[in-house]
Structures are given as structure tokens and as C-alpha cells.
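#help-structures

NK: newbie question. if I give both the sequence and a SMILES, will the prediction place the ligand too? trying with S-adenosylmethionine
OV: yes, paste both and it writes out the complex. here, I ran yours:
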Amino acid sequence: MTGSRFDRLGPLFKRHGHRVYPRWAKDLFSLFIARLARGSRVLDLGGGTGLLAGWAKEQRPDLEVWVADPSDGMLAQVPRGIRAVRARAEALPFEDGYFHAVAVGEALHHFDDLDRALDEISRVLVLYGTVWIYDYDPRPLAGRLVRLFERLWGEPANFVPPDRLRRIFIERGYMTGLQAEGFRYVLVAELREKASGRSSPRV
Ligand SMILES: C[S@@+](CC[C@H](N)C(=O)[O-])C[C@H]1O[C@@H](n2cnc3c(N)ncnc32)[C@H](O)[C@@H]1O
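OV: that's the protein plus ligand as C-alpha cells.
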């Protein structure tokens, strides 16, 4: 995955990207951000144009906010004041425990290797760091259609049903909370146990 498919879509996502987030998901994101300690470091992973990063910085100017994404065309739209880095979720260029929070909006299903990406998220998080994920359940009709469209478009479309993703996070040492409405869901997780030589559960 070079991100090239998304490169042309930067302006489109910049303008319309917010439309895929329902009010309740935005409210949950806002609560997630509000709970962070002053000066916390936040990563918007698969952050594209930095939509979530922008919301976080608007709400909490004290935060150090980063966007990581493989697409130059998407990153070109990231607002000023937000740090942007070209990177894939599977190989993050950050030291262990750098972030207090990681947000992944509508991007988890684009990751080629979910297992490695989840290893990386845990690695770059501090103990008791938090994760916020917004994604789609591939089982309801709407979710099946989104998956079909993305597969036709050539994306991995690795959609994980919410209850399964929750189990995966629990097995990885997180405490979790889940809210699902129709085919859309938000998973929030807190890292309670840092892996040390423990084999990661396969997705
Ligand atoms: C649907 S967009 C969502 C962008 C943004 N999070 C938002 O809510 O507007 C999916 C993003 O995932 C990125 N992406 C694809 N593969 C990725 C990977 N392996 N690691 C990190 N990001 C990836 C794409 O470049 C794209 O910007």
C-alpha cells in the first residue's frame, strides 16, 4: 500500500470527510479528547487530511497532535499546527510510549496487516494510554455494501465486527467500551498491560 489511491482524494476528504461521522460518534470523540491530561500527545493514525487531529486541536490547543498516514495527497491537506508524518500503521516512526492517545477514524479497515498495526499502537502508547476507533461492522447490509465497494476499489477492506475487535483488544491487555449504532461503531480502549515478550493474538 503506497497510499497512491488516496493521493487524489485529499481535497474531497478535506471538504466532505466529516460527513461520515454521525453526531454521536463526534460526541464520543469529544469526550475522549476532553479526558486527556494537559499537554498529552495524540496520534491520528490513518489520519488522512487530519480531520480528527483538527477536531482535537480545536477543542484542546494544549495537546501535541500528530497525523500519520501513507498518502502524501491526504497529508498535504493537514491543517497548520498539526504535525504530519508519512507512515504506515504497521511501522510507526515513534519511540515506545510516546503517545497518550491514538485515534483511528475510518482507517483501521485500510491497514494491510491489522495484527502488526495493533502491535504498533500498543508499542507507541504509554501504559494507561487510550485508543479511539471508529469503523464499520461488515455484517449489516450497509456494512456489506461498503466492504464490497472498497474491495472493488482495490482496498484491503479488513473490516472487523465490533464484538470481535473488542475481544482482540481485551486479549491485548486493554479495558474496552463499545457503542454501536447500525453498521457504525466506536470502540474506546485503555491499555492496562504492556506486552513484554508475550505473543500477540492473531486477528
Ligand atoms: C477513509 S480515509 C480516513 C481518513 C481520516 N481518518 C478521516 O477520518 O477522514 C483512510 C485513510 O487510511 C490511510 N491508510 C491506508 N492504509 C494505511 C496504512 N497501512 N496505515 C495507515 N494509514 C493507512 C489512507 O491513506 C487514508 O488516508
